[in-house]
Amino acid sequence: MRSLSIILLLLTIFGCANSPSGAIEYNTTVYYIDGKFHEEIPEEYIFKTWGYRITDALGTEHTYKNKVEIPHQRTETKFCTIHKGWENIKAMWAPNDNGYWYYVSRNKRF
Fold first, then answer.
1. Are 102 and 91 in contact (CB under 8 A)?
2. What is the largest distance, in Å, between two alpha-carbon atoms of the chain?
3. 60: phi > 0 → left, psi -120 to 50 → alpha, else beta; which?
4. Inside any domain, residue 7
5. Measured between alpha carbons, how far is residue 79 from residues 8, 60, 61, 83 in Å?
6. Is 86 helix (H, G, I), strand (E, B) or coil?
7. Nearest CA to 104 among 10, 70, 94?
8. How far, in whole angstroms, is CA 53 from its chain's centroid?
9. Burial tier of 3 (Cβ tally within 10 Å: 0-12, 13-18, 19+)
10. Cα separation of 77 and 92, whole Å?
């Protein structure tokens, strides 16, 4: 009887988990895609599911079903498959990066 009370006392003092919150915490993000575990979502899967991906000048990612080929200082309106709405995309030539910077804003249809 005494040993049972000691075990119960130890369980209440130390608890079952070692985390600061007292609960079991899972801090890992792993994606299970096509029968394999991945640390990040593979680029082929992103392309197949959401389409072509661009990152705007502020660092936000956008994906579109068609490839974005906009000349310097031109604007196109495309449907973003991540944000599920119409967006205006303006391309600006970035000589330091040898590519384009994209400025994306919501269209009035959104």
1. yes
2. 82
3. beta
4. no
5. 60, 15, 13, 9
6. strand
7. 70
8. 12
9. exposed
10. 15
Measure the CA–CA gap between 95 and 37, rounded to whole angstroms: 39
Helix (H, G, I), strand (E, B) or coil at 44: helix
Residue 11 lies in a domain: no
Structure tokens given for 69 = 């080929």
- The count of structural domains within the chain is 1
Backbone angles phi, psi at 98, to 5 degrees: 55, 45
Helices (H), the chain: 2-14, 43-50
pLDDT digits (tens, 9 = 90+) for 5-59: 777 666 666 655 556 666 666 666 777 877 888 787 777 777 777 788 888 888 8
Count CA atoms closer than 13 A to 15's CA, side-chain side.
8
Residue 78 forms part of a structural domain = yes
